[in-house]
Write a structure and sequence with these properties.
Blueprint (H helix, E strand, L loop, with lengths): L8 E6 L5 E3 L4 E7 L2 E5 L10 E6 L2 E7 L7 H5 L9 E9 L2 E11 L3 E4 L5 E9 L9
Antiparallel strand pairs: 1-2, 1-7, 3-6, 4-5, 6-10, 7-8, 8-10, 9-10
Length: about 140
């Protein structure tokens, strides 16, 4: 893959039914992490750390603009507080002819709405890995 900007991402999130919805137009920014846990196995005879890689993880925070049109962000996220369902969150970045995708089954843990002093109405949705499947780019 060539060097790229973050322009042109496609972001999909399943609603509670679960039907995949493309929310790229409502999302203004997001961040995600794919950390690995580590175990410190350093013996007292060492002068630097020794570690083992352990479990893989995934977390995401989506931020966007309120949109209550059918099948858009509010429609998808309004059921977070009343349902306990795993939702697939998909990220796709196309650079030239190559598309890299990352899809993970997540628990979306909150739907935070904010009305700013200037009138902007935005939301934030955090999510964490749900099912023990190692996050893998395709």
């Amino acid at each position: 893959m060539a060097k790229a900007s973050g322009l042109g991402y496609a972001v999909t999130v399943q609603d509670a039914t679960p039907t995949t919805r493309t929310l790229s137009n409502d999302i203004t920014d997001f961040n995600y992490a794919l950390p690995r846990a580590v175990q410190d196995i350093t013996g007292v005879d060492k002068f630097a750390f020794e570690r083992l890689l352990l479990l893989a993880d995934f977390s995401i925070q989506l931020n966007g603009v309120f949109n209550n049109a059918t099948n858009q962000s509010h429609d998808v996220f309004k059921t977070i507080s009343s349902t306990s369902v795993t939702r697939t969150v998909g990220l796709a970045l196309t650079v030239g002819a190559v598309t890299s995708t990352l899809a993970n089954n997540c628990l979306l843990t909150d739907y935070q709405l904010k009305r700013a002093q200037g009138g902007a109405f935005t939301w934030t949705v955090p999510g964490v890995l749900a099912d023990g499947t190692v996050p893998t780019w395709t």
